[in-house]
TrEMBL record:
<keyword id="KW-0057">Aromatic amino acid biosynthesis</keyword>
<protein>
    <submittedName>
        <fullName>Shikimate dehydrogenase</fullName>
    </submittedName>
</protein>
<dbReference type="InterPro" id="IPR046346">
    <property type="entry name" value="Aminoacid_DH-like_N_sf"/>
</dbReference>
<dbReference type="Pfam" id="PF08501">
    <property type="entry name" value="Shikimate_dh_N"/>
</dbReference>
<dbReference type="InterPro" id="IPR022893">
    <property type="entry name" value="Shikimate_DH_fam"/>
</dbReference>
<comment type="pathway">
    <text>Metabolic intermediate biosynthesis; chorismate biosynthesis; chorismate from D-erythrose 4-phosphate and phosphoenolpyruvate: step 4/7.</text>
</comment>
<keyword id="KW-0028">Amino-acid biosynthesis</keyword>
<feature type="domain" description="Shikimate dehydrogenase substrate binding N-terminal">
    <location>
        <begin position="6"/>
        <end position="87"/>
    </location>
</feature>
<keyword id="KW-0560">Oxidoreductase</keyword>
<dbReference type="InterPro" id="IPR013708">
    <property type="entry name" value="Shikimate_DH-bd_N"/>
</dbReference>
<dbReference type="InterPro" id="IPR036291">
    <property type="entry name" value="NAD(P)-bd_dom_sf"/>
</dbReference>
Length: 245
């Protein structure tokens, strides 16, 4: 059996596990299994690499950056981003890829309008790094919003009407609002949102977070992370299955 999987911490809720299980059934893929490897420390990944029939695995929070020292090579995208969400085992080499950037770009681009020139990015973790990369590729300037003061970042307290109106894309890369804490929301001045704004939340559970609900209430376009997850998963599958080419 070809073995695939997901590494992360406290990931019993995994989207990937159910997605690939369903994919294998629907596409009559009978020679593959997809397992969840819940690691309390990144060092435990060495045992995963020893698994029989391992072709590759996905990487989620909090190991997208921590996995890098355990790899032999990085794809150009993963190198530029500085984060890995897909690992391929090829000819004994461990190669890191980033398919989050593919998923984000192809789910965001259809929503963009001419006035979408500047973005606010909430959060600065491993997931956000793929978002920065794609915004750069699309020539969309962005500012990071942090809870604490960091040079060249905004804090949530600094956000005012002028900043909100001039940054018409807002991407939530933080975990705030994820199930089960669905009443939580990033502390934005939502009253300054309007129909020109596009709110994108990497969270997919719940489908409409409080962040997105606030945008919807003010006439903004909204998008959750579900399509991005599907696109990045399919891109990972393509990488794993084209590895001999």
């Amino acid at each position: 059996m070809r073995q695939f999987g997901l590494i992360g911490r406290n990931i019993s809720y995994s989207f990937s596990k159910s997605y690939f299980a369903e994919k294998f059934i629907n596409e009559n893929i009978v020679d593959a299994v997809y397992n969840v490897f819940d690691l309390q420390h990144i060092d435990e990944v060495e045992k995963i690499f020893e698994a029989e029939g391992l072709i590759g695995f996905n990487v989620t929070i909090p190991y997208k950056q921590e996995i890098i020292p355990f790899l032999d090579e990085l794809s150009p995208e993963a190198k530029a981003i500085g984060a890995v969400n897909t690992v391929l085992i090829k000819e004994g080499k461990r190669i890191g890829h980033n398919t989050d950037c593919y998923g984000f770009q192809h789910s965001l681009q259809p929503l963009l309008e001419q006035h979408h020139k500047k973005a606010l990015v909430l959060g600065n973790g491993g997931a956000a790094k793929a978002i920065f990369y794609i915004l750069d590729q699309l020539n969309i300037t962005y500012k990071i919003v942090s809870r604490t003061k960091i040079k060249n970042h905004f804090t949530y307290d600094e956000l005012n009407e002028e900043i909100m109106h001039s940054h018409q894309i807002i991407v939530n890369c933080s975990p705030v609002g994820t199930f089960p804490n669905i009443e939580n929301e990033p502390l934005l001045p939502y009253q300054f949102l309007n129909e020109n704004h596009l709110l994108y939340d990497l969270i997919y559970n719940p489908a409409v977070t409080k962040f997105l609900e606030n945008g919807q209430h003010n006439g903004s376009k909204i998008k959750n992370g579900h399509e991005m997850l599907i696109l990045q998963a399919e891109k990972a599958w393509e990488i794993w299955n084209n590895h001999t080419k």
